[in-house]
Amino acid sequence: MRRLVLNVLFEALTIIGHSQLWLDEDDSFCLPPYRSVVSADLRELAWWDEDSLSWFLTKEVDVITPHIPNPPFAADSELTKEGCFGLGIYLNC
């Protein structure tokens, strides 16, 4: 199985029409962080599996969200191509 990394995931999601994406991270005390890529309407599109070191798509990826003018996340934290490359190296995902 080939590993899916963050910058490739980002590129694939933008190609199929997802224009606004954020990296969400839930950092519990004793567990590894739970990372997911979410759309502007808060749907989880992919999640990170620490054991296989790969991203996995959810069924929600099939529903394309139109551009939302006031997304629930900070606009300056929206994922970009350059940001995904850097985060992927930093977080090893």
Describe this structure in words.
- The chain has 93 residues and is an alpha+beta fold.
- It has one domain (6-91).
- Helix content is 23%, strand content 24%.
- The protein has helices at 6-15, 81-91, and strands at 21-26, 34-39, 44-49, 54-57.
- It has a 4-stranded antiparallel sheet with strand order 1-2-3-4, with helices on one face.
- Helix 1 (6-15) runs antiparallel to helix 2.
- The chain is globular and about 35 Å long.
Major pleated sheet:
4 strands, antiparallel
Q: What is the helix content? A: 10-25%
How many domains would you count in the coordinates? Answer: 1
Shape: globular
Write the layout of secondary structure elements.
Blueprint (H helix, E strand, L loop, with lengths): L5 H10 L5 E6 L7 E6 L4 E6 L4 E4 L23 H11 L2
Antiparallel strand pairs: 1-2, 2-3, 3-4
Helix pairs in contact: 1-2
Short description:
The protein has two helices and four strands. With 93 residues, it is α+β, with helices and mostly antiparallel strands.
Features:
93 residues, 4-stranded antiparallel sheet, globular, 2 helices, alpha+beta
